[in-house]
Specification:
This is AdoMet activation domain-containing protein. Keywords: Cobalt, Metal-binding, Methyltransferase, Transferase. It comes from Cryobacterium sandaracinum. By secondary structure, the chain is of the alpha+beta class. The chain has a domain of about 50 residues. It contains eight helices and ten strands. Helix 3 packs antiparallel against helix 6.
Length: about 350
Amino acid sequence: MFDGTVRHARDAFEGLAVMEPLVAVARGADPESVGLPPLKKRIHKRSLLTVTEPDAMPARSDVVADNPVPVPPFWGTRIVKGIALAEYSTFLDERATFMGKWGLKPSRGGDGKSYQHLVDTEGRPRLRYWLDRILAEGILDASVAYGYFPAPSEGNDLVVLHHGDDPSGVLGVAGLPAPDGGSGGTVDSERLRFVFPRQRRDRHLCLADFVRPRESGQTDVVALQLVTAGANVDTVTAKLFAENKYRDYMELNGLTMQLTEALAEYWHSRVREELGLGAEDPVELAGMFKLEYRGTLFSLGYPACPEMEDRHTVVELLRPKRMGVVLSEELQLHPEQSTDAFVFHHPEGKYFSV
């Protein structure tokens, strides 16, 4: 055990505000005079969950299994490069950028600067500056690897079948309609599978429930996507850091992280449109952030799909090396500003915790 106090900073900018008084204390200043924020009372919430024992777990939740299955525009994968900044920057979550990444929060000191004041005087002017600079210097190289895969479910498993763009060259022969609605090639042999956890409470949901079960006799479709902002941003931010331009470094790094998320949301909207779900999208961007659409995006590492080892399987399916994205031994995508996800078209497919 160590004596002392643990302080938590929600982001790098708040960390800077905490570090300055701590450094002053380390140099002999009176802790009461350096402006350290007061410690918050620790609160422990009482758990009211009823957990189902493993031997009593259902094989499937009450999610409906008779919803219409959309026809994808193609089976397999495609690579799209050189996506214009103007196309996906409109999906940028400004609040997450300004508050979460740039630390624009009203001062605890009560100096009268509201969040909206900070947005108008600091946030949006800096955002315009960085977007202009990103465009002028070609800092981002937005690319996407995505695809549609035939897939039934078996219990907690999502089974991906062989398909027309399968690099193994193995094709099935029965049961799957052609993307154009014709009578062409079909696939019925297993290629690989994902195993997802099931809730031990509530509705006992599992991601596999959002896919038609194999016994239904109808093959479902699951979309995967992997987006990247490119490798150049790492070079630019490393240069800013080496030049001790820490605020510029944190601003650009935080913004490009959010622009990568914006790229993911932009392409997510394209996938929904290609699956014929676009008419169910909200009119306002705020509705997008509130998930008021059909066809939810589930990223690896989230509660419903926590197994990061599955990234090997995602990379095998999408082959993002064709656009310069590789997977490290630590299961991290490189370039760093890259993210991957599943898209499930099921109308009940919403976020849940396992």
